[in-house]
Structure formats: C-alpha cells, structure tokens
Write a structure and sequence with these properties.
The structure is a single chain. This protein is an alpha/beta fold. It has a single domain, classed as Vaccinia Virus protein VP39 (Rossmann fold), CATH 3.40.50. The protein is 37% helix and 20% strand. A seven-stranded mixed sheet has the order 3-2-1-4-5-7-6, with helices on both faces. It is globular, with a radius of gyration of 17 Å. The chain starts with 9 loop residues before the first helix and ends with a strand. The mean pLDDT is 97. It binds 3,4-dihydroxybenzoic acid and magnesium ion.
Length: 216
C-alpha cells in the first residue's frame, strides 16, 4: 500500500454506503416506481448524491444545469441542496423519462425548483445563456460529452462547478475487452477533460467515477 493512495475495493464502497446520509423515503420510493414503470434503473448512489449536495452547498450554488434527467433522482437530489429560489434545469431526450421525472418532481419537496427541458442536450443547451449557471452535471449519452462540456464551459460562470458522471465507464474503464458500447467514448472524454485547460478537475472515485471540476 502506498502512502499516497489506498486501493479502494468493493468492500470500501460498501463501508462508505453504510455510513452515508440516507437518501430518504421519497427517493427510495421513486426508484421502486421507476422499476415498476420500466424506466431504466440508472441513478446516482446516495453517497454520490451526498457529495454533490455538499459541493453545491459549499459553492452556494443557485442555478444548476443537468444533461440527462432519466427518472429525476439526481435533479431532485441537487435541487435539495439549493436555496428556495434556486433552480435545476434538467434536459431529457426521452419523453417517457421526462414524463416520469416531471410527475415525481411535482410531488417532491422541491416542486417548482426543477424544470425538465425536453429534447437533445445539444439542441437545448444552446438556448441557455452564457454565465447563467453556478454548476453543471453531465450524465447523458457519453459520445456527446465533449460537446456538452463545451456548452457547460459557456453556461457555467467563472469559478463554477462542472461535474461529469461515469468516468469509470460502468466499471469497464480498464477492461481489455469491454462489452458496453460507450466505453470508448468515456475513455476519449476522460482524455479531453484531463487536457482541458479551462477547468481544474479530478476524478473522484465515488459511484462510477465522478469528474469534479472548477471553471477557471
Ligand atoms: C448507464 C448510464 C449512466 O449514466 C450511469 O450512471 C450508469 C449506467 C448506462 O447507460 O448503462
Ligand atoms: Mg451516470
């Protein structure tokens, strides 16, 4: 073991998970309902949600842009970290996912603090003004991550937070023969992010690897 880093194993993740602020009944129920409705069971872990909420709070973030709403789990989690007049603008391509997310946002404690924008990320992002957000969370189709990042760098203010999900490519980042078709896109994006001079960024080994960056 090196003094610089502990090798994080599945047991560490389990240890962390059992000592993380619980997600609460509402988000647990949202997950059950999503599975029942046949919505892909894809959401951030409670530990990742906690980290993102802490970062948003430390940042005193008011406005957040998300690409990839899916069931709305992360949008609701992020909205909970904002002040009452804060807002999450979340973008979703699939109407079925947007319908589900809107229904659950409407009965959540952050109703009115989240807007679901329907359409492709690369179609909706250009409608958002420059320097209009304190933070962005990119979590949609991985092949478009470089394009989403370019927009995030325009929309997020200087000093703002840019988070990007799945840096570990669904656990297959270092696999010799990955089976998921998006692994190559994640690998390519990680190189883009690592070389990007306009952000200071680090991959936090939580969930499936979370890029956390600050716009210079
Ligand atoms: C998948 C996508 C995600 O953003 C994620 O966090 C986990 C899985 C997927 O496409 O399988
Ligand atoms: Mg993700």
């Amino acid at each position: 073991m090196s003094a610089e880093a502990t090798l994080v194993t599945a047991r560490h993740f389990e240890y962390v998970a059992h000592r993380t602020t619980p997600e609460g009944d509402f988000l647990a129920q949202l997950k059950v309902a999503a599975r029942t409705a046949g919505i892909p069971a894809i959401w951030i872990s409670p530990a990742q949600a906690s980290l993102m909420q802490i970062l948003l709070k430390l940042h005193a973030a008011r406005t957040v842009v998300e690409v990839g709403t899916l069931a709305g789990y992360s949008a609701i989690a992020m909205a909970r970290a904002l002040p009452p007049d804060g807002h999450v603008h979340t973008i979703e391509l699939e109407d079925r996912h947007a319908d589900f997310a809107e229904a659950w946002i409407a009965k959540s404690d952050v109703k009115g603090r989240v807007t679901v924008h329907r359409g492709a990320g690369l179609a909706v992002l250009p409608t958002l003004a420059a320097d209009s957000a304190d933070a962005a969370f990119l979590d949609a189709d991985k092949g478009n991550y470089p394009g989403y990042l370019e927009h995030a760098l325009r929309i997020v203010r200087k000093g703002g937070l840019i988070m990007v999900d799945n840096a570990f490519a669904f656990g297959q980042l270092l696999d010799e023969h990955p089976t998921d078709r998006e692994v190559g896109a994640v690998r390519a994006f990680n190189e883009v992010m690592a070389a990007e001079k306009r952000v200071q960024a680090v991959i936090v080994p939580i969930g499936d690897g979370l890029w956390v960056g600050v716009k210079r």
